[in-house]
Amino acid sequence: SKRLEGKTVLITGASSGIGRATAFEFARTAPNNLKLILTARRIDSLKQIVAEINDEVGNGVKVLPVQLDVSKPGEVRAFLGQLPAEFNEIDVLVNNAGLVKGVAKAPEITEEDMTVMFETNVTGLINMTQAILPIMLRRNNGEGAGDIINIGSIAGREPYVGGSIYCATKAAVRSFTESLRKELIAKRIRVISIDPGQVETEFSIVRFYGDKSKADAVYAGCEPLTPEDIAEAIVFAAGRRENVVIADTLIFPNHQAAATIMHRKS
Ligand code: NDP
Ligand code: 8X3
User: Fold this and answer.
1) Residues belonging to the active site
2) Ligand nearest to the backbone CA of 49
3) What distance in Å separates the CA atoms of residue 126 and residue 183, rounded to the nearest whole number?
4) Distance 14 CA to ligand 1 centre (A)
């Protein structure tokens, strides 16, 4: 798409799942003149993705892998200062890094799990936004000044048993996103919410602390969304005419009607 040409796109949590697929989708959609900054904790995975993107679309897309733990405020603060100058003018921030730990009910949730979910999904996302916003605010000249695309979840709209903390973090993302859109109304910055239902990624493996069979059971009898399905929605939103804001989305696979209402094939 011509509209994305020349843009600089920063994706958090790009080493896996939706973030990884979004990197490929941006590269395929604007293969001629795009800059991608891919961040996550697993730098080796990011480097591998950079090589795969370059193999697929050539060097029209400049891809920079950066190790960044969004839950560490110091790392987020230092991040911009370490970027090469040619990647400084960020146009699109995809706040995707996030995770869920466990299915414990409130009395049993460990402090560690609670903390990592809030520090990644909520304060991490807010700290990233605060770090990048000044770049977009400086660009405010009546034209499109930038996009902030936050990955929420059905879980942020509909709390469920065994998800109190994760659901609370995604509800916090939803509130933050909506406040931000209102605060920035005069700034030509688009604040976009992409809220997926069930997507098959490493998400459930992380939820069950690496137990693949428990993770697989989540998708038994279902045909979950693929990370590419969500990547398409993210890139679609970023590629609209500047005056068009895809403010709010809820994306389910066909068998899902609510956070916990799945039609399973027996
Ligand atoms: P994955 O586990 O496949 O990907 C999560 C990504 O987040 C990884 O790249 C991981 O990278 C990164 N991440 C986790 N913690 C941190 C951190 N502290 N700092 C930086 N990066 C971090 O899951 P998904 O792709 O499914 O998840 C992406 C987003 O989508 C999340 O916000 C999730 O809540 C949301 N979502 C997922 C749904 C699903 O059903 N899968 C449904 C609705 C929303 P690394 O480990 O290398 O740091
Ligand atoms: C992930 C969707 O409902 O499985 O955000 O927690 S859910």
Assistant:
1) 166, 170
2) 1
3) 14
4) 8
Instruction: Tell me if 252 CB under 6 Å of ligand 1.
Output: no
Encoding tokens for residue 139? 């660009």
C-beta separation of 254 from 223 below 8 A: yes
Whole-model pTM: value is: 0.98
- What mean pLDDT is predicted for residues 146-157? 98
* Ligand approaching nearest to the C-alpha of 123: 1
Give per-residue pLDDT as tens, 223-246: 999 999 999 999 999 999 999 999
Residue 222 near residue 262, CB atoms below 8 Å = yes
Tell me which H or E stretch contains 248: strand 248-251
User: Average pLDDT of 123-141?
Assistant: 94
Q: Residue 224 carries which DSSP code?
A: P
ipTM exceeds 0.95: yes
CA of 8 to the centre of ligand 1 (A): 21
Compute the distance from residue 161 Cα to the ligand 1 centre, in Å.
21
- DSSP lists the bridge partners of residue 92 as 9, 147
Q: Compute the distance between CA of residue 134 and CA of residue 199 in angstroms, rounded to an integer.
A: 33
Ligand 1 atom index nearest CA of 204: 41
Q: Going by CA atoms, what residue is nearest to atom 6 of ligand 2?
A: 155
Tell me the pLDDT band of 37, cut-offs 50, 70 and 90.
Answer: very high
